[in-house]
Amino acid sequence: MPPSQASTAGEFARWIEEKSEAVKVELAEKFPPVTSGPAAVHNETCTQRIEEVLLGHEAAGDALLEELATEDTVPPLSDEELARQALANGGADEDTDTPEQAA
Fold first, then answer.
1. Which of 20, 49, 87, 97 has its CA 20 to 30 A from that of 3?
2. What is the residue-wise DSSP string for 28-39?
3. Cα separation of 13 and 95, whole Å?
4. Per-residue model confidence as pLDDT tens digits over 24-64
5. Residue 49 gets which letter from DSSP?
6. DSSP string, 89-103
7. Biased-composition ranges for Acidic residues (predicted)?
8. In this structure, what are the phi and psi dihedrals at residue 44, rounded to the nearest 5 degrees?
9. What is the DSSP letter of 75?
10. Rounded to an integer, what distance in angstroms lies between the CA atom of residue 16 and that of residue 30?
């Protein structure tokens, strides 16, 4: 890679990093940490919410990382299973274009 392209690539990477940090700060301001009420109860683990980690309010704990690693080992649902679940739990959105409403 010529030096001019390397310089441009470095500038672009720096620009991306600056933009991602700005978005992270903006999101953190819009969505402050939840400290009380039902939303403060973490569904993913007993101690941590994935949103708090993604917004940069908390560092990912071992329990969350372990849970995410476990999710990678679960086989994907078949199309038949997804259809069964959609039909069993559908209709709440009142969308006439979805299969559960077309019957």
1. 20
2. HHHSPPP-SSGG
3. 43
4. 888 877 777 666 555 555 554 456 778 888 888 888 888 88
5. -
6. H--TT--TTSHHHH-
7. 92-103
8. -65, -50
9. P
10. 21
